Amino acid sequence: MKVLFAASEAYPFAMSGGLADVAGALPKALRKRLIGCRVVLPLYESVPQELRDKMKFVKGITVPVAWRRQYCGIFEAHLDGVIYYLLDNQYYFKRDTLYGHYDDAERFAFFARAVVEMIEHIDFVPDVIHCNDWQTALIPTYLHCFKGDNPLYKNIKTVFTIHNIQYQGKFGKEIICDILGTPAEVESIIEYDNAVNYMKAGIESADKVTTVSPTYSKEILDPWYSHGLDSILENRKWKLTGIVNGIDTEVYNPATDKLIFTNFDAENMEGKAENKRLLQERLGLPQKPDVPLIGIVSRLVSHKGFDLVKAVFEELLCEDVQFAVLGSGEWEYETFFHNMSEKYPDKVGLKLGFIPELAHKIYAGADIFLMPSKSEPCGLAQMVALRYGTIPIVRKTGGLADTISDSGDGKGNGFRFDNYNAYDMAHTVRRAIAGYSNKEGWKTLVKRAMDCDNSWARSAGEYIKLYKEIVKK
């Protein structure tokens, strides 16, 4: 079986969030299961030169964008056993950032059409095109619109994965004629709520729709989570399923990770204590081995639960506890944590920004990891924390509900609260602090956490079942 994985970003070529991790790791896991998987993404200005040096030019083609045709250069790169196609158009992709431009509707309409057109010019005709988020959501519609009578394309099936339903690719209807160029009979597929909605088109046109966790696939049928698409999904829930993401266990491996202070594993935990000591030193915190250190690595935005944290943070600091905080985001929360670190320098260590090596050090050096999200389609941080023996505190939502179970029953791998309530969260934090004081019990919990299998191998098997199901049909 052959799969073409289409994404707007993929590690290590271009990264802005969790999608890049998925696009970098899932194809590798599929390859190990003998699935021929290749990846296609835009050739952004930000692709590192050392990766550009490994690319070879395949062919230049022209791609229809409504009434005009645009150049597309097809480049090929081989990395970790996976073939990547990077599609070049400097007008669309020579930008300082991946997203957030005035012409994103046109940029990603071009990319979606280019993915479809390039299949005629490469030595790879996929059985399945796996599309991800709104930036690639037009691919299934374009296949039906423009290649329905082409025998090369007649057996290609499509999967569309929703990584975050909040970002749907909504634009004015004027782009139908000027950018999409789709026939009139397709308007009902791509239009919703008097606007063009790329994600809605993907949901309508794909053979299967997936989300990145089973719980999230049920949550988005509820108007509170769906951002307006609940009725569309409810009518098509027969093709909706949830498959929880995995993590790259080679990148996140405390036994080999070069970004942490010292390596360790489940059988030799001395290194974790040293990582904690050196992390406390790095953040200017007193080096107290018996004080629980709670890590936060996140975008500092309200839907990640920081309104809850802000409401009870000073109460929690009355406990014998320390916090290691890394992130950036909304001014309100950046300012709040800055003020807390100034007011409580012995208890709050803060670094604002995105610092990958420090993130690894927090995963390895913290005792507890706080992730109280309002919504979380899957979440990777809680699974990375488990890998490093750092016990998560999460709210029961999305992928957090699917990967973290409460240890109160003696079997779980973390601490969990149900209601989106600051005092429920604070109570759960205090339960974790109390659990930490039981040294033998905590060692058992840490061992259980590190033994969890959140590798992509498990998730890849679920995707393979899905691919086989639609290809047989």
Give the averaged pLDDT, no decimals.
96
- CATH evolutionary superfamily of the largest domain: Glycogen Phosphorylase B
Q: If helices are DSSP runs of H or I spanning 4 or more residues, what is the number of helices?
A: 20
In CATH, the architecture of the largest domain is 3-Layer(aba) Sandwich
What overall form do the CA principal axes indicate? globular
Distance between the termini: 14 Å
| DSSP E strands, number | 18
Strand content: 15-25%
Mind summarizing the main beta sheet?
Answer: 9 strands, mixed
Q: Write down the CATH class of the largest domain.
A: Alpha Beta
Derived structural class: alpha/beta
What's the number of structural domains?
A: 2
Side-by-side strand order of the widest sheet: 3-4-5-2-1-6-7-11-12
- Fraction of helical residues: 25-40%
Q: Determine Rg (CA atoms, Å).
A: 23 Å
Low-confidence blocks of residues = none
CATH topology (fold) name of the largest domain: Rossmann fold
Characterization of the model:
There is one protein chain. The protein has 473 residues and is α/β, with parallel strands linked by helices. It folds into two domains: 2-246 and 457-472, Rossmann fold; 270-454, Glycogen Phosphorylase B (Rossmann fold). It contains 20 helices and 18 strands. The chain has helices at 18-32, 49-52, 90-93, 104-118, 138-147, 175-180, 187-190, 198-205, 214-219, 223-226, 230-235, 270-282, 306-316, 331-343, 356-365, 381-387, 398-403, 422-437, 439-450, 456-472, and strands at residues 2-6, 36-42, 56-65, 68-79, 82-88, 128-132, 157-162, 170-171, 191-192, 195-197, 208-211, 240-242, 293-300, 322-329, 348-352, 368-371, 391-395, 415-417. The strands form three sheets. A nine-stranded mixed sheet has the order 3-4-5-2-1-6-7-11-12, with helices on both faces. Strands 15-14-13-16-17-18 form a six-stranded parallel sheet, sandwiched between helices. Helix 16 (381-387) links the parallel strand 16 (368-371) and strand 17 (391-395). Helix 12 (270-282) packs across helix 15 (356-365). The longest helix has 17 residues, at 456-472. The protein is globular. The protein starts with a strand and ends with a helix.
